[in-house]
Amino acid sequence: MTFRGIFVEDNDTEAVFARQMSTKGVLELEHERPRPVSKHSKDIFAGRPDMLVLDFRLDIDLGEMEASEAYKGSAMAQQIRDLAVSEPEHDFPIVLVSSEEKIREQFVPDRTSHDLFDKVCSKENVTNERALVRRELISLCAGYQVLRSKVGDFNVLELAGLAADDDYVLDYQDLRHAMQRATTPHLVAAIFLRQLLWRSGPLINIHDACARLGVSKDEGATVSDALRERGLSYEGIFSDGWPRFWAHLLDDFTLGVFGGRATGIPSEERAANVSKAFGNELAPAKSPWTGKTDELIAFACSCCRRGTEMRHSVGVFEMDLPSYSTRRRICWRCIHDDSYLAAVPPFTIDEADRSLIEDVKKLQIPE
Ligand SMILES: [Zn+2]
């Protein structure tokens, strides 16, 4: 079957993005101009699409609409979410696609609308990383299709692709509580995307997996294949769009390979052991700060994604961090050259580490 979606955009020349985000025969998006919001939202919902994509500003080129009828994408998203609460079996993903500048200057400060969208993506991103964006959109449609079929019976283990006796992996009170209260597909999707797939915790991305193995992030493709072959990859909902690995399975694997706690061993030693285990020569992770391969690389920098050691990194301040997630950290190199300042949404440095910033900026980068 082909997923069908709608792209609401007031600027006719940008309607081409409907085609750019579509994948022939898999997900086909059709452009619609905004009409008065309440009627238009009801029509869209009644049409039971598999996805809705909205531009953020729908109030610039009004066409036949009155100025008083102008609205933003977030207003339509809110109405659709309200409709889905009474008919959860017809819920579908909502994606925001807008220019980088509008996202940074208008959407990011508008905090109340952030939770309305399953994904926020810039038009520049659609153009430059088209294959990735298409894969994520299809994955959202497929994940929601599963979720719609499970309304009234959302089982976190089943949705995560875990067996019943793996229940300890996701046994956290805050996760259980959130799942109990999630009555619609979009609320369950938010738990999976925001709390499990987009954070490090029970699931980690390939950059964190490389860091834990002491291997350079450039080896990601090889490591990813090797971990997948060994059954360490996440196979639950949205896994096609956001490939992840189970941290508990990686721990078991590294214990066998290193014979001890992975992060207590210098990266070059770990990389040598992993190379042997995978039968493939893998470059060790170099500290982004010292450039050396004998550091205790433990996690990926949230900014440059390179494996980083605790002692040359600062913590990111996190609102509402789940008990099962790890606080993000940024390497000293990204602090030193200010690259962390360019991130959207921006990083807020943890207060406890804020005084370090000035110190790090004054340091010479070690030769
Ligand atoms: Zn970095």
Mean pLDDT across every amino acid position: 94
In angstroms, what separates the terminal alpha carbons? 57 Å
Radius of gyration, taken over Cα atoms and rounded to an integer in Å: 22 Å
Distinct ligand kinds: zinc ion
Order of helices and strands: EHEHEHEHEHHHHHEHHEHHEEEEHH
Structural class by secondary-structure content: alpha/beta
Beta strand %? 5-15%
Write down how many β-strands occur, each being a DSSP E stretch of 2 or more residues: 11
**Shape label:** globular
Helix content range: 40-55%
Total number of helices: 15
Strands of the widest sheet, in order across it, are: 2-1-3-4-5
Q: Major sheet, described briefly?
A: 5 strands, parallel
Low-confidence stretches: none
Number of domains: 3
Map the helices and strands.
Layout: E1 3-8, H1 16-21, E2 27-32, H2 37-46, E3 51-54, H3 73-86, E4 94-98, H4 100-107, E5 119-122, H5 123-128, H6 130-149, H7 156-159, H8 173-181, H9 185-197, E6 203-204, H10 206-213, H11 220-229, E7 245-246, H12 247-258, H13 267-278, E8 297-300, E9 307-309, E10 313-315, E11 329-331, H14 332-336, H15 351-362
Parallel strand pairs: 1-2, 1-3, 3-4, 4-5
Antiparallel strand pairs: 6-7, 8-9, 10-11
Bound molecules: zinc ion.
